[in-house]
Amino acid sequence: MSQLRSKVITLYKHLQYLGRDYPGLNGPQKFRKQVHDAFMKNKDEQDPKKIVALLAQGRYLAKEVEALYSLKKYRTVKQRYND
Amino acid sequence: MARVLVGVKRVIDYAVKVRVKPEKNGVVTQGVKHSMNPFDEIAVEEAVKMKEKKLATEVIAVSVGPTQSQEVIRTALAMGADRGVHVEVSAAEYDLLQPIHVSKILAKLALDEKADLVILGKQAIDDDANQTAQMTAAVLDWPQGTFCNKVEKTDAGLTIAREIDGGLETIKTKLPAVLSADLRLNTPRYATLPNIMKAKKKPLKKVTPKDLGVDTTPRIEVISVEDPPVRQAGAAVADVDALVAKLKAGGHI
């Protein structure tokens, strides 16, 4: 259980860190609030299987956000230099 | 192949709207988000990939600039570079530092660190000079592969696909060589927080251009920095005759 707890905290920190670059007006604040709310919603979850599933969902989201940033950067730079 | 030297530059973040200072002697950099030049990220990624494929043993990230340049070296270390070299130049001197100076510094470092390959971004998104890789190759008298789209190790050297107008050109070079990364070479990885923390323990060496025997006295003077011209508003015309009359008045027909 304590292992899972540290994994959840690591994921939370990672998502909060990712949120710093979230695009849009107040993007970072909004994204970080959403992440916070999502974690708070499931804070009483006790079933290890469900926690593992939620962790997987969170990691998937983190990958998606990373992909979003990389695509946004690629598109901007491509538009400036290749078109 | 043993060592790869990667050049990284700290520039104003790509997503920031750049503003010209009211004194017209430069752009506003105070309190503006900076990050690593996107093309340099691609260069770092390529070097780290080479290390992962065991084609390279060590990746050295180099940045020339004021103290803050260490941030981008840390990012490069977080992405997987092994150690960093910071060539410290004062902020005042950095404003007038030109690609010729940087290429001389990089060339000297490449020899000092016994690098077999130098990978740089094709250009920085702040001054858009697109000169450093070419001039570094010239100073070292090494072959160059610019605008790399794909880099492959072959028996004696590298096979490189270069981006040219309307297609790709494949060339072979021997090693040592200087490469410059184009946009489609790879997709850079994200520097995660734990990796950034770990990167703080990686060695970072500080040198000055004087230690390297490179003269960085400015060769240019900035006369004025201007905003690009604002597009003039258009006007609607009632009919064809009015349009023709307007065009004639404007001297277009």
TrEMBL record, chain A:
Q: Residue ranges of the Complex 1 LYR protein domain?
A: 7-61
* UniProt xrefs under PANTHER family: ELECTRON TRANSFER FLAVOPROTEIN REGULATORY FACTOR 1 (PTHR21024:SF0), GROWTH HORMONE-INDUCIBLE SOLUBLE PROTEIN-RELATED (PTHR21024)
One example of a Gene Ontology biological process annotation = negative regulation of oxidative phosphorylation
Could you tell me which species this protein originates from? Answer: Drosophila hydei (Fruit fly)
Q: Name one GO cellular component term.
A: mitochondrion
Pfam families given in the database record: Complex1_LYR
Q: Which domain of life is it from?
A: Eukaryota
Question: Which protein are we looking at?
Answer: Electron transfer flavoprotein regulatory factor 1
Homology family: Belongs to the complex I LYR family.
Automatic annotation (TrEMBL), chain B:
Outline the extent of the Electron transfer flavoprotein alpha/beta-subunit N-terminal domain: 24-216
Gene Ontology biological process: amino acid catabolic process; fatty acid beta-oxidation using acyl-CoA dehydrogenase
**Transcription regulation as UniProt keyword:** no
Q: Which Gene3D superfamilies match?
A: HUPs (3.40.50.620)
User: GO CC annotations?
Assistant: mitochondrial matrix
Subcellular localization is given as: Mitochondrion matrix
Provide a Gene Ontology MF annotation, just one: electron transfer activity
Which keywords does the record carry? Electron transport, Mitochondrion, Transport
User: Is the keyword rRNA-binding assigned to this protein?
Assistant: no
**Quaternary state and partners of this protein?**
Heterodimer of an alpha and a beta subunit.
Its family remark reads: Belongs to the ETF beta-subunit/FixA family.
Name of protein:
Electron transfer flavoprotein subunit beta
Q: What is the lineage of its organism?
A: Eukaryota, Metazoa, Ecdysozoa, Arthropoda, Hexapoda
